[in-house]
Amino acid sequence: MIPWTEEEDIALATSWLATLTNNVPREPTAPFWEQILQQFCIHVRGGGDTTRTVNAISSRFKTIHLKSSRFEMIFNAIENDDGELTEDDVIQVALVDYKIRTACL
């Protein structure tokens, strides 16, 4: 398995956002992920081809979504606990806390 790059993660998140409509299916179907893959090919490496498949795109997005949800939970807890911090400070504290909790340091 080829590791995902930061460029690909950003392209995937951008592609997901570009594909969203007001009628996002509760359980995204294959055509939904195929649209994301098409957008992904546009956003990554200047529109070049990719070796990533629909299954790889879907799986990676689930991982990104899980991690971003964890960060959001930590961010919200810090923001609610300390009204004295600026938003930038909350982000920095939350990032350190996230890395500790997920052993990313």
Report on the architecture of this protein.
It contains four helices and no strands. The chain starts with 5 loop residues before the first helix and ends with a helix. Helix 1 (6-19) crosses helix 2 (30-43), helix 1 crosses helix 3 and helix 2 crosses helix 3. The chain is mainly α and 105 residues long. It is elongated, with a radius of gyration of 16 Å. The chain has one domain. It has helices at 6-19, 30-43, 54-81, 87-101. 13% of the residues are buried.
Features:
105 residues, 4 helices, 68% helix, mainly alpha, single chain
How many independent structural domains? Answer: 1
Approximately how much helix is present in the residues? 55-70%
* Mean pLDDT value: 85
Strand content: under 5%
Which oligomeric form is depicted? Answer: single chain
Low-confidence stretches: none
* Rg measurement, Å: 16 Å
> Could you say which overall geometry the principal axes of the C-alpha atoms support?
elongated
H/E series: HHHH
Distance between the termini: 23 Å
The number of E-state strands comes to: 0
Quickly count the helices.
4
The computed structural class is mainly alpha
Biggest sheet descriptor: none
What is the compact description of this entry?
The protein is mainly alpha-helical and 105 residues long. Helices cover 68% and strands 0% of the residues.
